Amino acid sequence: MRSRIAIIGTGYVGLTTGACFAHLGHDVVCADIDPRRIERLSQGILPIFEPGLQEIVEAEIESGRLRFVVGAAEAAKDCEFAYLCVQTPQGQDGAADLTFLQAAAAEIAHVLPAHAVVVNKSTVPVGSTKVVERVLNRHDVSVVSNPEFLREGSAVSDFLKPDRVVIGSDDPSAAARVSDLYSATSGHIIVTDPASAETIKYAANAFLATKISFVNAVAAVCEAVGADVNDVVLGIGYDKRIGHEFLRPGPGWGGSCFPKDTRAMMKIAEDAGYDFNLLKGVVVVNDEQRERMVAKVERAVGGELKGAVVAAWGLTFKANTDDLRESPAIAVISELLAKGAIVRAYDPQVSSHPAIDVGSDPYDVCDGADALIVLTEWDQFRWLDLDEVKRRLGRANIVDTRNLLDRSAAIRAGFTYQGVGR
Ligand code: UGA
Questions:
Q1: pTM for this prediction
Q2: Which whole number is the average pLDDT over 355-381?
Q3: Which CATH number goes with the domain that contains 171?
Q4: Closest atom of ligand 1 to CA, residue 148
Q5: Which of 112, 121, 201, 218 holds its CA 20 to 30 A away from the CA of 5?
Q6: Would you call 92 helix, strand, or coil by DSSP?
């Protein structure tokens, strides 16, 4: 069934949600407060890099199912569903700041047609569905929580082929209507109350962050006892209760979600009177992991970072995105710079950075360097010519924080190679 959907906020979540709903056959109007952003989006120019999204946006503008307008009220005045996809930045006390969400709800309150459903997709603290209900103050409009589980870099397929769709509502008919929007996808539909839906979002991200910190802690043990974390993960991962996913060791987790959502989850727990010590430990391990990567570079260059030249591959918080928010790569490089190292970085999606010298060629940044550190798992780094890298570097040291390169090939080529947990 074809529905009329308004999307409020054209950030990464709103844009993906809007474009994908149009792709599923719905009529979508996306709204933003920024006129320039809307003008560019209407021409198919995207503010973010997300594989597959450009093609869908272009095709759906062409089909007429996807439009962009300035202002939430303009989008919502004729809709059956209004998706709130505005940012919920971290407030000073660690809790999510709901200012944008409340402003968006207030703006559409007077124009929403009767029986519209307002859907909260932003990541918000437990109880926010009720906050939106209060701001709207419309007894003929239902509010539903429908959290997103989109990963940057694979957001389009995460949306179109979801593991599950979570719908939280006290109104069964509104929940059924939201569930119908996803009928063309194959995900499990979980209908629950709003507080549970909101908790599912935080619990999912907190658990994934826990898995990564766990494997990073195991990697530290592996280094100490002479084990290989890759084999350990292989060995535990075949246990179906554990699985292989999200157990790749690295420089720690970052991005726009895990850091913010783990802090928000700790704050939610604290406010509710529970001390979430487990999650506190997960964050501590993550902070330590960055230090551990810096210490590896320090060892590689002979113990003194002051004046050492370091080539860095990767700046984004993970591969297949141009997002630098809370990037572990940036954190590690900043620490190297603070300790007096001279860092030259390369990233396929980043051409400049206010605090970091960024080059345009992965080999050029290696020229004369005392060590190469691999910080983001871009696939192209795997295929670069190690002999050429060795010719360019001043000293043949590699610190591979993603266990990305072929360790045996690097050792054969004459490098001193340090990975993580092996
Ligand atoms: C994450 C979740 O995976 C999504 O399900 C969720 O919807 C999203 O947050 C959100 O809340 O909006 P994302 O931040 O795009 O998605 O990135 P992830 O792929 O989860 O990676 C997060 C961080 O963990 C990255 O720094 C990544 O490099 C790191 N990571 C991930 C590892 O170090 N090891 C792994 O095995 C997996």
A1: 0.94
A2: 98
A3: 3.40.50.720
A4: 7
A5: 201
A6: coil
